[in-house]
């Protein structure tokens, strides 16, 4: 990198696995006059399944760090540090207008979809649950909307039928870290290009609830398999109910033969070791594998 007098000071906000990896990249760029001057994170989270506290980085690097579980005045914290830019990766709350307008270079956000498509909540989960074959890693300048600001970097990410939440998450992180290394220098030097999102192409994914993770045997086999993939680690796992008890399923597979339509969805068709073959919609069936605890069922039972 060509020597430069340009500098970039960053307040970093985040509390998930990707936040941790992105922060490591930024901390490695001190020699390029790119410095993290403050960190905002959560020591605990009941919302983020992939939660990571960034407090240890603040201690190790001697960087002022705020735990929002203990303090809520993030605006004053940022004002005191006066950063050139704020990076907000892996943060479920919208930032206030005062914070968004505080740094002269704005606030950079991240969303793992092909914006303006698929704004909103749980992007990795929805991508897999809906059976999409591609997504994207997108960085944008945050505004008062949700995932609606001008895009500064976007790269496609393929989604294979073998992917689950863990492998897709890893794919996205790998691409996103490369992007950070590419756009942070023009951001520092004041020559960053961006383009405004086309709002006419936007849709928004809603927040998912516990009921969205329950397998309904009236779903097709491929929809059930997609749900299991979507809720794989680090997420909570897809579940089915039997006699009021919940059972988590971490792997599943479409049965390669047709089942008569007159067999009721939810009927147990076969049992091999701890794997259970269950009738699903139409003529389909699905193998449930890697169930987290033993299910006391026999062939012919109904889930």
From TrEMBL:
Native source organism of the sequence: Thalassotalea piscium
GO molecular function, one term: methionyl-tRNA formyltransferase activity
TM region positions: none
Domain Formyl transferase N-terminal: 70-176
EC number: 2.1.2.9
UniProt-listed InterPro entries: Formyl_trans_C, Formyl_transf_N, Formyl_transf_N_sf, Formyl_transferase-like_C_sf
Every Formyl transferase C-terminal domain range: 212-293
Signal peptide residues on this chain, from the entry's feature table: none
Any one Pfam family match given in the protein's UniProt record, by short name: Formyl_trans_C
Name assigned to this protein: Methionyl-tRNA formyltransferase
Coiled-coil parts of chain: none
Keywords: Transferase
Cellular component aspect of the GO annotation: cytosol
């Amino acid at each position: 990198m060509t020597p430069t007098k340009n500098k970039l000071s960053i307040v970093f906000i985040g509390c998930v696995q990707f936040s941790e990896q992105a922060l490591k990249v930024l901390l490695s760029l001190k020699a390029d006059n790119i410095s993290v001057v403050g960190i905002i994170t959560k020591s605990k989270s009941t919302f983020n399944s992939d939660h990571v506290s960034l407090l240890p980085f603040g201690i190790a690097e001697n960087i002022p760090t705020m735990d929002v579980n203990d303090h809520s005045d993030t605006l004053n914290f940022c004002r005191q540090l006066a950063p050139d830019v704020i990076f907000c990766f892996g943060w479920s709350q919208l930032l206030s207008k005062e914070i968004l307008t505080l740094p002269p270079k704005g606030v950079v956000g991240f969303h793992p979809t092909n914006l303006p498509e698929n704004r909103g909540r749980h992007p990795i989960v929805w991508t897999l649950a809906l059976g999409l074959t591609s997504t994207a890693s997108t960085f944008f300048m945050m505004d008062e909307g949700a995932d609606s600001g001008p895009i500064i970097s976007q790269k496609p990410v393929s989604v294979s039928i073998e992917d689950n939440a863990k492998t897709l998450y890893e794919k996205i992180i790998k691409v996103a870290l490369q992007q950070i290394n590419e756009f942070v220098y023009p951001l520092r030097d004041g020559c960053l290009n961006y383009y405004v999102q086309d709002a006419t192409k936007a849709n928004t994914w809603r927040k998912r609830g516990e009921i969205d993770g329950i397998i309904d045997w009236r779903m097709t086999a491929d929809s059930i398999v997609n749900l299991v993939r979507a809720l794989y680690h680090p997420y909570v796992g897809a579940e089915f109910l039997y006699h009021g008890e919940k059972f988590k399923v971490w792997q599943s597979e479409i049965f390669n033969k047709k089942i008569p339509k007159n067999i009721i969805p939810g009927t147990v068709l076969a049992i091999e070791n701890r794997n259970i073959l269950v009738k699903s919609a139409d003529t389909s069936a699905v193998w449930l594998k890697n169930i987290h605890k033993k299910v006391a069922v026999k062939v012919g039972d109904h889930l």
